[in-house]
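Researcher: Watch the backbone:
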Amino acid sequence: MPENPTPERTGEPVETDEPVKAVRAPRPERDAAARSAVARRRALAGLRATTGAIGVVIAAGVVAAVGLVPLPGVGEPAPAVEVTPQRAELEQVCPGALLRLGDDTGQDAGTATAVGGAVVRSAATDGDPESAGLSQAPSAARVLTASPGGDALLAGAQSQRAGSGGLSGFAAASCREAGSSAWLVGGSTTVGRTTLITLTNPTEVEATVSLRIWGENGAVSAPGMTGIIVSPDSQRVLSLAGFAQNLASPMIEVTSRGGQVVAELQQSITRGVDASGVDLVGETTAPATTQVIPGVQMPGPDTIGAQLGEDGFADLASALRLGNPGDSEATVDVAVVPEAKGAEATTLRIPVPAGSTVDVPIEEQPAGAYTVTLDSDQPIVGAMRTSVFTAAASANAAPVTDVAWSVAAPALGARAAFTTATGDAPTLHLVNPGDEAVTVRLEPLDGGDGREIAVPARGAATASLAGAASYRLIDAAGLSAAVTFRAAGVLAGYTVASPAPISGPITIRR
């Protein structure tokens, strides 16, 4: 695809209300902090890129040991060396600005360009994190780094309000660690719906990415889905329509060799000539027989009911997307459970054909927050689409709508932290799938006063959050969590994840 503008890499602070712009500028001399951050990232890049790098280091250690340790005699036990892998520097990638295809004049439709900028917030348990741009990234994605420490945690999130450049709405996303695989559920390439795939490689090793795409009619086969090169320290943006047009219900598996990547979807909607919602869709959990989607914000039937019959507004209705990448049909038991105490759940049983996806309309529930649980006899993935609608303020104005995709959240580990992006009514949603009640402690990373949240067995709990703040979750292992934002004409959210575990000690025998 055509080359995109290359934003400047800087060491500018993360805690700022100024949006990050995707503008190429002459490279000034980096300050000492930025040079230090880049040097550390490059020194650790090989270790981060693949687990194979660890194998090389271990192999080298074995070779050295052979030359230094006397060979055992017959019947003697082989000498062993215990090696503890060192934790690499903490690193997360923030998606950056919202994107569109083409420039202000409508030309160069094959190139992604940034619209406005995202406001990034972050914090760490051991000093302030550093922020740097990539050498090439259309969205001006940011890379956050922090010292590893013993129990160090890094958390970041971003948000953006769009009202120009053919985009309208509010989008929020968490900053995430790069990996070698990801599943994306959301978006569409039908008329008026644009879905972009962003692949960000923060490492110093070239990434070779492959895509597998499914839809309502089965697997998609198209040129260019394999061998996608994402250069070191850069980002690629692909239009999903370039692989499959008029795809109503996409599900995508992203795999990477070499450098690791962060994969995201961006969906934007245009109804007629009016921009009508935008969202950033992070990765959902990998296929499994049980999935939990926390913090689904239902607008209520009175909010959108009258608009559903209008041309182009059918997907304003709430819908659950189920994807089955396997070879056997899946039977999925769905429960839509209100977080409000005493409210009744809605249950469904849905068949999902092998190797395909299904969008299931969900009858409009009373306005509020819900947990959607999926229990299947085959591994599946899932996500929930909801929308908000506000009538036009005048005869000459367009109605205000927004869309949000709520994805399945992973079970939290022993340690977890998250950042609240700048937005309206930030709320934490905790879901407990276990048979015993859990009390979770929520502590600000800046050392302020914490509080306890009681999460009932097989239930959910919520907590209002301060804007642009970062928190640590204690005693939340096994729970799922999400952060949401809600206001008139505004809807967004993202899941909370624990850091990837570090390997334990490895015993090497000669």
In short: The helical segments are 32-49, 51-68, 301-304.
